[in-house]
Amino acid sequence: MRSEILMDIYERLYARFGPQHWWPGETPLEIMIGAVLTQNTNWKNVEKAIANLKAASLLDIRKLEQICPDRLAKLIQPAGSFNVKARRLKNLIAWLSEKHGGPIESLKPLSTAQLREELLSIRGIGPETADSILLYALEKPVFVADAYTARILGRHRLLEEGAGYDDIQSLFETSLPKDTALFNEYHALLVRCGKEYCKPKPACAGCPLEDLPHDTQKECL
DNA sequence: GACCAGGCACATC
DNA sequence: GATGTGCATGGT
Question: 0.90 cut: is pTM over it?
Answer without folding.
Answer: yes
